[in-house]
Amino acid sequence: MRTALLICNVFLLAACSGTPLQPAVKLSPAYQQAVDGSAAVAGDWWRVFNDPMLDQLIARGLAGNHDARLALARVQQAKAGTTAAQSRLLPSLALTGSESDSRSGLPAPFKNGSPDTQSTRVALDLNWELDLFGAARAARRAAGSDLLAAEAGIDGTRLLVSSEIARQYFILRGARERLLLLDDILGTLRKTEELTRKRFAVGMASELDVELASGERLNTEALQPQLQTLVVATQARLAVLMGQDPSQPSHSQPGMTPAAATTTAALAAWPDLGPVAPGQPVELLARRPDLRAAEQQLAAESDRLKEARLNYLPKFFLNAVFGGQELTLNSIALSPVRYSNVALAFSAPLFNGRVRAGIEAQTAREQQALINYEKLILTAVEEVEVSLAALSDERRRNSLLTAVAAARHKALKHGESLYRAGQIDLLQLQTLQRAALAADQTLVESSAQRALNTIQLHKALGGSWQPPAAATPAIQTSTQS
Description:
Largest sheet: 5 strands, antiparallel
Radius of gyration: 38 Å
């Protein structure tokens, strides 16, 4: 017995050796691209755009999106896993019963040795694997971490869905505005072409001028199909994101698409948001759902490794049966019989290569979870840095493009006056028209990209979903040199 206890102690020390892995990532105390005096992220992040239509689209998407529903189903699966793991710590109890009737046609003298028997049995059967060394408790902790990872997956899916809806919304809005700009410039080009044909009829313009005017109009019209395809594609994508049939007309799905303006004068101004405070890189560990999920996945694999190591130790089983029996022998009813059986057994591995192989396999899984966690941390910081720089640079670019568009429209207005007075030719006027069109198109693209960069930054920062109060792993920070 002493030898057995000594062996158990040795195995216990070996099984419990090793500490949970932590990501060896050193994060800087601040982002390089952070802007001082920026506004903090608050509430549902998409509300910073102050767009009721966008709010409605995202609300419908979060309620009907299939990926969000899948994430909820995964949580239900994880909850069932925790229940199953918890049941390992408790005994299982079963009610068993039997009814038997054994008769023979043997003469009475022979039945003394082989009697007719009628028996009724009812018993409670208890089975319990005693968790003396903590293997079942480690499995329960792993299942709990799986549940937390699945719950973080819900937040992550909502963040992806809301950001993708917002992205498609602004892409659609930009495409529609560019189509309106094309309609405006096409109206101008048609008037120019009509005027040129009239001037050609009276000998004031050449046939070359007519061809140039017609060619410019056709070239501008050729830009419309691509933008119209983009409108259809974004509408279909928005429908799918909200769990709706993309084959249904958009007007039959209230709130699916932003209302289209009929003239450029009716266009709403693009949101001009100020800088966003990103906080510190280490805060991403609590704010980003994918990092929270990766943290819990690492914790789950570490606990499963503990469970695998504990398979080296003996397993103890308790079995108990308590029952009663009604017995009749050769038509003689006997008194009810009570019976019980209690047994304690153990099983200890001596030569089992599968235990060692299981430990090696689980060690590899833990390493994979750790590497994935470290990779996600660095990728998250990268996304925030790039998003901060992209948003800041696009804001500066948009400001310059606004000035460019204003200057080119002023030049076009002056050029139209000169053309009507005959002081410049059609080629010069068309150059001014193309310049104004290019400036307007570029400005709309920049405004849409500024909105998309804002969305990407909020997505990189983890949106507005905050985790429950919980300890985060100790990630080192280092001062940038």
